[in-house]
Specification:
The chain is of the alpha/beta class and 493 residues long. The chain is built from 17 helices and 26 strands. Helix 8 crosses helix 9. The structure holds malonyl-coenzyme A and adenosine monophosphate. The site of adenosine monophosphate (AMP) has 17 residues, from strand 13, strand 20 and strand 21.
């Protein structure tokens, strides 16, 4: 039996999930998930690793769907609830998903997919009412999940993890960060990425903790729940801490005092998915009394490097390798052995993904010949702690904790009738980590930037839309004619 299900069976009436202020016990969650599994099986013995996509709002239905897919032997393919149709079509086509599970909110919106793909679309509200039937024994070596992540080239790639890999990613964090059934956390992160899925929801439910779901991030709601005094574990991306600080600063002294008192009682507060600015770390200590535990991860590896639970959490550093995770720095094919010398972070261990879905060449290219996964992140070790210096590719942007491909945005921008060439870069920003910015060449030199923004929003998901544009006469190029992106950054800064 899958470990998370086995654990849940022992937690009975303990509260597992809170959504819309309603509480659900572990026993109810298990019952719902078995109903979903039975509905998906629909008389079959086993889904035999068919991809099952799901577009379900955060909460009990989301977890019941994910656990239902796993128990029925399917592969869970979460779809971001803010994806526009073309992105969903891409995921369905790429995974060849046979079923899409949707809640009431997305059911009608997804119906057009039936015209293009041989998929069934099932309403989760109906699945939750199905009678429970026999459920297969699922071997842990089987595929469990596919998450999509942007690369420098082509479309996003599906990162495949097996149950064994997922279990390793979860159990390492549970042990290292000392999760217990007494814990109570809140999930405000999107549920199509590892941060929300593995670190918050799966670690919490593996341990018998309570996970309180909010439909999306809102500082008012987060602070309202902090003030209830039940939460003791909080995890977020740096942008969220930045936004919480900004909101805190606008509260009255009395409100601030109450919040600070509530936050002091937390057991653990974690930041990750992007670099935590030292200024944010310091301000957060001031208002909450907590040194944020910063850790480093990636869709392909779960979490790899972390500041300690006990011991010094060093501002500006991502910490040391997690137990069982092999980490090395390589520079030009040579192992970095001295402190303060930089190299690419490479990872090996039971936490590392199995493959990019249907992309054997991309998979092979992302591993060294001796089996280490090449992250593309450049780091140094100083006094035993890793510090990230940047990425080896300027074409990967991290904004608000989301990974964005600059090349994908350039491709869309070049389709605009009034743009003859362009260059997209991430420029440093305290709130967003980086903001997406574009230098554009336009024959007429009088492009309406407001209209261009509206056009981009229609052609790309909102969060990928450039926030800053500059019309330039030409793009800086090197002797080979290639755009030199660092010079483009300087045009903006
Ligand atoms: C949104 N806005 C942005 C933006 N995103 N502006 C600049 N850059 C961005 N990236 C603008 C919108 O256009 C809008 O502006 C306003 O901000 C509010 O938009 P929103 O969509 O409502 O934003 P909000 O809900 O506040 O979202 C911010 C956020 C979200 C931080 C909550 O980005 C988020 O959930 N990020 C987490 C992503 C995540 O989980 N990553 C983990 C990947 S896994 P206007 O003008 O229209 O009002 C991974 C591995 C690991 O990385 O290590 O964990
Ligand atoms: P993703 O592909 O969305 O999973 O994002 C993974 C990337 O996020 C990593 O390769 C890093 O570049 C970045 N990242 C994650 N955690 C941190 C951190 N603590 N500091 C700096 N970058 C981070």
């Amino acid at each position: 039996m899958l470990q998370i299900i086995k654990n849940a069976s022992g937690f009975g009436n303990k509260t597992a999930v809170i959504d819309s202020d309603k509480e659900y016990s572990y026993a109810q969650l298990l019952d719902f998930s078995r109903r979903v599994a039975s509905g998906l099986l629909f008389g079959e013995n086993d889904l035999s690793e068919q991809g099952i996509a799901y577009m379900v709002s955060p909460g009990i239905s989301y977890v019941a769907t994910q656990w239902g897919i796993w128990q029925a032997g399917g592969v869970a393919v979460p779809i971001a609830v803010n994806y526009p149709l073309p992105s969903i079509e891409y995921v369905i086509e790429d995974t060849e998903a046979t079923i899409i599970v949707a809640d009431e909110a997305y059911f009608d919106f997804l119906q057009v997919l039936k015209e293009k793909f041989p998929v069934k679309i099932l309403k989760v509200e109906e699945l939750l009412k199905m009678a429970v039937s026999a459920i297969p024994e699922v071997d842990l070596s089987r595929n469990a999940m596919i998450l999509y992540t942007s690369g420098t080239t082509n479309k996003p790639k599906g990162v495949v993890t097996t149950h064994t890999i997922l279990q390793s990613q979860i159990s390492t964090l549970v042990d290292s960060w000392k999760w217990t059934r007494e814990d109570y956390t809140i999930c405000i992160l999107p549920l199509h990425h590892v941060h929300g899925i593995v670190n918050v929801v799966s670690c919490g439910l593996w341990s018998g903790a309570t996970v309180h779901f909010l439909p999306n991030f809102s500082p008012e709601e987060v602070f309202r729940i902090f003030l209830e005094g039940k939460l003791n574990v909080f995890m977020a991306v740096p942008t969220i801490y930045f936004k919480l600080i900004a909101h805190f600063e606008n509260l009255t002294i009395d409100e601030q005092k109450k919040l600070s008192e509530a936050m002091k009682k937390f057991r653990l507060m974690v930041s990750g998915s992007a670099a935590l600015p030292v200024s944010v770390m310091e301000k957060w200590v001031e208002i909450s009394g907590h040194y944020l535990l910063e850790r480093y991860g990636m869709t392909e590896i779960g979490m790899g490097i972390s500041n300690p639970y006990e011991g010094e959490r060093r501002a500006g550093y991502i910490g040391k390798p997690l137990p069982g995770v092999g980490v090395r720095l390589m520079n030009d094919g040579k192992l970095v052995e001295k402190e303060a010398e930089s190299g690419e972070i490479q990872i090996k261990g039971p936490n590392v993904f199995k493959e990019y879905w249907n992309k054997p060449e991309a998979t092979a290219k992302s591993f060294t010949s001796d089996g280490w996964f090449m992250t593309g992140d450049i780091a140094v070790v100083e006094n035993g702690y890793y510090r990230i210096l940047g990425r080896d590719s300027v074409d990967i942007i991290k904004s608000g904790g989301y990974k964005i491909s600059a090349l994908e945005i350039e491709e869309v921008l070049r389709k605009h009738p009034e743009i003859s060439d362009c260059c997209v870069v991430g420029i440093p920003d305290e709130e967003w980590g980086e903001v997406v910015a574009a230098a554009v060449i336009t024959p007429e030199n009088d492009l309406d930037l407001k209209k261009l923004n509206e056009w981009m929003r229609e052609n790309m998901p909102a969060y990928k839309t450039p926030r800053k544009y500059k019309i330039v006469g030409d793009l800086p190029r090197n002797a080979m004619g290639k755009v030199t992106k660092n010079d483009v950054k300087q045009i903006f800064i």
